[in-house]
């Protein structure tokens, strides 16, 4: 007869380090007598469909270095799932399956979307603890998230490699880097890889400024340029319209009008998805320099986690079990100044940790002469 039943799921985009976190929680938990660990496949979809896997110690061996998530993942939301072709709120079914499995707590590993979904389940009465994972590093109240360091290394290596080809052909190469609406990954990899221009969502850019800085480099005999472009980077013109629309959505109280405005914003985001290619064409026109684009995409999330991410995920995973024992529910396990702390989910949700404009990385980038497009 078990005395503590822990459920676990992984949700949102996979990141290197998730399996290290599952192992950290699992190995700690299963070393106590009477503890049972039940995994749910494919995120919130899996708990809704009651697709379970019961962990034993053997299943937790050999996964520390594996990328992805052995549980599978999805971007499904408990309150908005497609079931039999219709969008439905499946919260009640999830609550039912939580109790059917006699869970004492459900651990949700994920990024900002997962924190929000987990908070929703906590408000529905479930005992929830979350861990922060995302390559975007954009979760508030934690100094960092696992996955970020690995992606940073991959993006930096890509910039390193692009240097020799850009230099040989005297080209501009734009390298698009993930990060959603935050610029941590592009800024970090851009600085570490020595990009000549770094464009991040927090600093809207002017094409004229970028073109001038590239032409200035040419004048100094530097016939190539590498531009690290965050996928969320916006021109000043686009940012003005987009931010005005977002403010309008925030203020709108009428439900129908709000959803119409949201649809308008989705359309803008669809157009923006090809922004790096458009920017490349514009820069070629402005500078007369042959220009190419590399979109790193999901390469940044694939493969084995870095040593730092394995360590961070293990630290958070093992600490998670301590918080379970202390019944610190409705919280996210976070890192703050090297301490592991539990932050109430209501403080975490509906926020994005953007790069502050006075962040030391921005200062350093400017100090070494990197153009930030403004
Ligand atoms: O949140 C992680 C992330 O990789 C973002 O950087 C990116 O915008 C998004 O996920 C891509 O999502 P998907 O894997 O669903 O295409």
List keywords for this structure.
374 residues; alpha/beta; 8-stranded mixed sheet; globular; binds 6-O-phosphono-beta-D-fructofuranose
In short:
The protein is an alpha/beta fold and 374 residues long. Helices cover 44% and strands 18% of the residues.
Describe the protein.
With 374 residues, this protein is of the alpha/beta class. It has two domains: 4-146 and 305-347, Rossmann fold; 150-301, Rossmann fold (3-Layer(aba) Sandwich), CATH 3.40.50.460. It has 13 helices and 14 strands. The chain has helices at 18-30, 44-48, 91-100, 112-123, 148-169, 184-193, 207-219, 236-251, 255-272, 275-287, 307-325, 345-348, 360-367, and strands spanning 4-10, 35-40, 52-54, 81-83, 86-88, 105-110, 128-134, 146-147, 172-177, 197-199, 225-230, 291-295, 331-336, 339-344. Strands 1, 2, 3, 6, 7, 8, 13 and 14 form an eight-stranded mixed sheet that branches. A four-stranded parallel sheet has the order 10-11-9-12, sandwiched between helices. Strand 13 (331-336) and strand 14 form a beta hairpin. Helix 5 packs across helix 6. It is globular, with a radius of gyration of 22 Å. Bound molecules: 6-O-phosphono-beta-D-fructofuranose (F6P). Residues 13, 75, 111, 134-136, 178-180, 231, 301 line the site of 6-O-phosphono-beta-D-fructofuranose (F6P).
């Amino acid at each position: 007869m078990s005395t503590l039943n822990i459920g676990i799921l992984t949700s949102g985009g996979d990141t290197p380090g998730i399996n290290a976190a599952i192992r950290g929680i699992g190995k700690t938990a299963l070393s106590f007598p009477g503890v049972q660990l039940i995994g749910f496949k494919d995120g919130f979809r899996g708990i809704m469909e009651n697709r379970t896997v019961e962990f034993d110690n053997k299943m937790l061996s050999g996964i520390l270095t594996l990328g992805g998530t052995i549980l599978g993942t999805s971007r499904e939301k408990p309150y908005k799932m497609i079931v039999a072709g219709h969008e439905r709120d499946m919260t009640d079914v999830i609550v039912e399956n939580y109790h059917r499995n006699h869970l004492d707590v459900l651990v949700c590993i994920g990024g900002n979307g997962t924190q929000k979904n987990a908070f929703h389940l906590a408000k529905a009465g479930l005992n929830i603890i979350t861990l922060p994972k995302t390559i975007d590093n954009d979760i508030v109240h934690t100094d960092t998230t696992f996955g970020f360091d690995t992606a940073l290394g991959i993006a930096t290596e890509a910039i390193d490699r692009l240097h020799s080809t850009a230099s040989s052909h005297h080209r501009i190469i734009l390298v698009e880097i993930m990060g959603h609406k935050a610029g941590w990954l592009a800024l970090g990899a851009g600085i570490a890889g020595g990009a000549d221009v770094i464009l991040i969502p927090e600093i809207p850019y002017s094409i004229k400024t970028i073109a001038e800085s590239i032409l200035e480099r040419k004048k100094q005999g530097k016939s190539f340029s590498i531009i690290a472009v965050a996928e969320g980077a916006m021109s000043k013109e686009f940012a003005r319209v987009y931010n005005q629309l977002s403010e309008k959505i925030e203020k709108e109280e009428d439900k129908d009008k709000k959803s119409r405005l949201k649809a308008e914003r989705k359309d803008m985001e669809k157009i923006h998805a090809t922004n790096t290619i458009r920017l490349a064409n514009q820069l070629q026109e402005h500078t007369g320099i042959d220009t190419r684009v590399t979109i790193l995409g999901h390469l940044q999330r694939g493969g084995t986690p870095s040593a730092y991410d394995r360590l961070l995920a293990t630290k958070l995973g093992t600490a998670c079990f301590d918080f379970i024992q202390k019944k610190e529910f409705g919280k996210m396990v976070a890192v703050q100044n090297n301490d592991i702390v539990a932050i109430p989910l209501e403080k975490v949700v509906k926020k994005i940790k953007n790069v502050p404009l006075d962040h030391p990385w921005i200062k350093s980038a400017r100090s070494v002469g990197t153009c930030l497009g403004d």
